[in-house]
Amino acid sequence: MAVRAARSAGFTAVLLLFLVLAGSAWTGDAHAAHNGTPTTQEDPDQHHGTNATNHRKAFPVLAFNYDHVRKPFEISLWILLALLMKLGFHIIPRVSHVVPESCLLIFVGLLVGGVIKAMDEKAPVLDSKLFFLYLLPPIILDAGYFLPIRAFTENMGTILVFAVVGTLWNAFFVGGMMFAVCQIEAARVGHVDLLSCLLFGSIISAVDPVAVLAVFEEIHINELLHILVFGESLLNDAVTVVLYHLFEEFSHAGTVTVGDAFLGVVSFFVVSLGGILVGVIYGVLGAFTSRFTSHSRVIEPLFVFLYSYMAYLSAEVFHLSGIMSLIACGVVMRPYVEANISHKSYTTIKYFLKMWSSVSETLIFIFLGVSTVEGPHNWNWIFVIFTLVLCLLSRVLGVVGLTFIINKFRIVKLTKKDQFIVAYGGLRGAIAFSLGFLLTDSEKKHMFLTAIITVIFFTVFVQGMTIRPLVDLLAVKRKKESKASINEEIHTQFLDHLLTGIGDICGHYGHHHWKDKLNRFNKTYVKKWLIAGERSNEPQLISFYNKMEMKQAMMLVESGSAAKLPSVMAAASAQNIQQQREEARQQKLLKISKTREAEIRKVLRANLQKTRQRLRSYSRHDLFMDPFEEDMSEVRFRKQKVEMERRMSHYLTVPAKRQETPSVRKVWFEPEHKVYTYDDSQSPRSGAIQLNPRPSDGAALLDGSPQGSESSAAPQSADQSERQKPSRCLSDPGPNEDEEESIFFSSR
Amino acid sequence: MGATQTRSGQEYQELAERTGFSAEQIRNLHKRFQQLSGNEDTISREHLKSIPALANNPIRKQIIEAFFDKRNQHGNELGSYEEIGFEEFLMVMSHFRPPTLRTTEEEKEAMRKEKVRFLFNMHDTDGDGKITLVEYRKVVEELLSKSGTIGQEAAKAIADAAMLEVASTNVPNMGPDDFYEGITLEHFEEILKGLEMETRMHVRFLDVSTTNVYCGK
Predict the structure, then answer these.
(1) How many domains does chain A have?
(2) Contact residues on chain A for B205, CB-CB shorter than 8 A
(3) How far apart are CA A665 and CA A551, in angstroms?
(4) Tens digit of pLDDT for each residue in B31-74?
């Protein structure tokens, strides 16, 4: 019932929004004519002296001046509409399971475009400048910054072959065959020459990263396939840029000579390598800057965003590949920046990137829909149908042919299923549309645009919708739920060294050898320059371990009852492991002051009373189980609270009483949702703390924990911890403090 | 390289069947073996230690030990050799073969078990079939040894945490006073399930039949 009410409320809201939007477009024009009226109304003083016939108007209490805010108003309205749409889809669960979000958004765009057209207004179109300069960079930056480096570099060869050779093949095949098609008399498109066809081919041949991301994110395919298709869509930008400019230049000139073709090849290398170089330079600059930001943590995220955006724009200045520049910048910057910035900044960067890319993506698809309705079309049956067929055909042929060659060099071969998914996942998207929009020749342009839009619609709708059932049908391997495991990390590193060693024994300078060399170079030279302070010496295993601890603590805060969590932190209470007891305990115990405890309880009470509904839709726009979302200090307080309680129950009670802790190894055992009442009358050091577990929910835990416990707990902890090392992590995380200090490692 | 002539094609064939390499690969590995051993028939630990590229490897000792470990010879013996011949060398190398397109699922499973077992043997230095905490700590210490002066504390904490993780995933209902003795092979396999050893643990060199043997020295 509530859902239906919400749904209808949502619909009415959306409808209202449509009307307001359309209305604003209309009133905006209407007011252009009446521009003079408001202003005269606003300054009666000036006028009443000059114009004797005008009698004095009353001071306007309320005036309407829309033009003043028109542009930002409309932009905000559009974005709001887009986001409301996104919300709306999730209220209707059945639809969002079948239809990918991108399709729904295009559909909405179509509707809006239709409404605006019905009102005979001019709709905002997906302007190329808007697209390339404002909408595309956030998406690419988001993808590049969080690119899985290991998978990417391991499959780099394959990705490059698909991106470069595959796109070239597509472009020439489609262009050439379309030219042949245009020669058919019945098509009436004989005026399209070879160069134009090749230009068209180069526009339509590139796999689009936005569309791929949008669709693949929802199907959770295994990492290999994801990185193959996605990596290809990123790296083919260089090819597209070169081909597009090449053919555009020459379609005016009319002919292409061999010299020009050679220059084209050279240009390809310049564009791609130049783009990467620009990105690397800005990345290093960004990393270097982040080294000094310890005093102004608040602006740290801005550096990341601005340097990356500058990298993109600088590359675009020289007609280099902006996308590759952006990716290179993000990849280079990330490890160093993350070692330098605070956790809050890291969270901010992550959130903002996801937010911007989400908004951008939504807007792109809606605008695509609107532009479809709006744009002048030139529908030519033969041209469009053949384009579609040829695109599909060339994609399939290209993938199959290239895989045949690639498999000779790959260790992990690509099976037929993999090939199918790669071919099927070659979606076209807004980049093709924008490139088409940039064309200058108007007659051919409209025909091309129509064909491009048709292909985009087909790939996004048909392929996008059917890929999920196909993946299920073919039982393609899905993404494995990655549970951060310290064992896996240890063995990943172990394997790296082992394979490097075996390779050295064989005398073969393989993949591992060069990776090892790069790592060592990184450690000895680069890290010293780009990472501040002592973090520059921290080995990866240790940073991983620290991160894991944080995550564990976060998971605890989130879930509450976590009897099954692998207890990473419980090294302290690992009484099952020999030789561990005393030294471990003493290492980990902390001294907690009374005021701290009061703060702890306040913070925890606030935490536990928040109920958050996590949407487990696995979209990259959702940040479920985000380990770094909370403030670090809260986490620490929480950990300490639990430590304290655990300490109480372990060390100060007689074992026989402890029924509620079946396993010592489990750090966050049942007492999480039980309430402890500390009896004041008990002496602090005796073993008889009365533990009264009351089955109550988490929110009551702290409400119920009586104020009396504060006074009794404090002396106990003070007593207990007198012998222990005081922790230095309980100081407030001020602006100067290195917030990455772990409570476990006192030596860095 | 006169010694190479004494190996007949027959022996290569037999070795190929036992280890799964092709004749070409065996020939190339034999060349390398000769290089390392200085044209003798056996290799000792010193020969392997003298490879300059290995000097920077934090787990060099373990790797070299693995070659001399009898458990890696697909037999049931324990202990270690003092010197190994080409056959033993090849057997150890065969653990690093990758699966091909034609490998069936059972074969892949068997491969994975074999590779995991190899890793297990590397960790379980005293050969009792269990990786104890002390042994695991040693592993982590060695991993961190070349990475700077982090100290024993970190290695201990990490190893402890890792042991705990193994214990909690494999033996979920341990009582508070139970004693987790060590990681057995089954537990080890369980925790490394996610890593897909059969595809990760391979050396590229051994896959392409027309190899480029770079003289690594």
Answers:
(1) 1
(2) 503, 506, 508, 510
(3) 18
(4) 888 888 888 888 888 888 888 878 878 888 888 888 888 877 77
